[in-house]
Amino acid sequence: METYTIPIDIGDIRNLIKQAGDPCVSIYLDLASTDNPTQQNPLRLKNLLRQATRLLQSRGMSKDEIDGMLSDLYELMEDRKMMQDAGLGLALFASPGYCARFELVDCPMEQLSVNSMFMIRPLLELMAEDQPFHILAVSLGEPRLFEADRHSVRQLDLGNKLETVREQRIEGERAGMQQHGGSGEGTDSSRHFGHGEEDRNREKAISAYLKELGGIVDGLLAGSNDPLLLAGEESVVSELRPRLKHANLHEQVIDGNPRDRTPEQLQASGLQILESKLSESRMAALEEIRSRQAIDGKAVADDLQEIMDAARSGAVDTLYITVDCRLFGGTKGLSEELRTTYAGADLANLAAMWTIEKGGKVIMSTAAELGEGIQMLAGLRY
Q1: Which residue in 352, 346, 355 sits closest to 380, CA to CA?
Q2: Which CATH superfamily, name and number, covers 298-380?
Q3: Which CATH superfamily is domain 2-129 in?
Q4: For 359, which DSSP code?
Q5: pTM of the model
Q6: CA distance 96 to 65
Q7: Of 181, 251, 301, 316, which sees the most CB atoms within 10 A?
């Protein structure tokens, strides 16, 4: 059985689509909604597998064929440790000769699908909500680095190197104090000179401290493209920002003294910033598509038949779907071939599957972003 854990990316879903045979079983299981998950979750999975068995029998499959197809999923019921460690939910998929599980950080709506394709739409919705990110709470005394997502936040260890740069900063301040004259006694001119030396020494120590902090954080986040948000007073953040080389350093700052905020408060502020930015990015992409439409008239499709044809042929670059989209195979205005071949099928799921399979992107959007009455919109390659 193939296993996918967070963060799930579009490549994982593309691989799932490529492995799909006929029939396809898709199961979404909420692992956090029971009082006794250790006992009840295996029973709930067992009930869903029994339903899947009956549906597969109705499609003409033999007992041996069904047992071979679902055997790995039945074995999961006995794996209590996996059920405990899998997160808040599971997405399970099986077709002849193939089986996969996705461990989720959100609670999916429990559902079962037995069809000619996998039900991937819930995965796409969970992906849209599940953006991991990091927060660097910057202070001169005790900086903190957090790894967070919508559901959790945890502090990462910055290592012992910071003790060295803290000592450097303290020694710098002490050097300034010595220039100042220790107890503060002396002439006005000597005190004035001392303050200047103290300020310069302190600035050098702080600069060294922030440079070292930037290097430590870059090392810890090497290879990650998850957003990094800075939290702190602008004077300190502006000094640190040029010293960070992270590829996805967010421009907006969680302002204020981070010492006054709990990890959960920093997480909530980070989510608010990222969600606002994500919505802005989606709107900007949609505006670009619509501006192209105004020029050539062919860059965007909002007609359902046109979207389905374009997705199947690989002409969709980006497919936008509202989270509450409800379009099925029997919808009026579709070709006879679509209505008969995919009668009752979730057309948004089908269009998403075709789009991803052909190398396109799928973005879960809101009704306000797409416009009144529009449930799907396609940005076309040609």
Answers
A1: 355
A2: Ribosomal protein L30/S12 (3.30.1330.30)
A3: eRF1 domain 1 (3.30.960.10)
A4: T
A5: 0.67
A6: 8
A7: 316
